[in-house]
Amino acid sequence: MTEEITKDIFAKLVSLAALELNTDESDYLRGQLNKQLLSVHELEAIPLSPEVPLARHGVPFPAEISPDLRKDVLLAFPNSTEIMKQGPQTADNYFVVPEIPHTRLE
Length: 106
What we know:
Structural class: mainly alpha
CATH class of the domain at 1-47: Mainly Alpha
Largest sheet: 2 strands, antiparallel
CATH architecture of the domain at 1-47: Orthogonal Bundle
């Protein structure tokens, strides 16, 4: 199997994602990504007739063949205090979320 994602490319991706991987993790993940790409290329190689419709998921369609938009309906929960009791910390009927430390990536 020709590796489309080389060690250099994978190292760059790991750096961009700000991941810390040991050698075993890197080798495993790089191997998995290459296997997934191989599967994608095998699917791309399947000859399809132009009459075969495209999959609907994630593909934009003209309005005439798009389904109608559904109406949004608000269904309020009858007892919001019951939900609020499940949170570890609340204030003024809101959940209190701890501050997330931010690290500037370069």
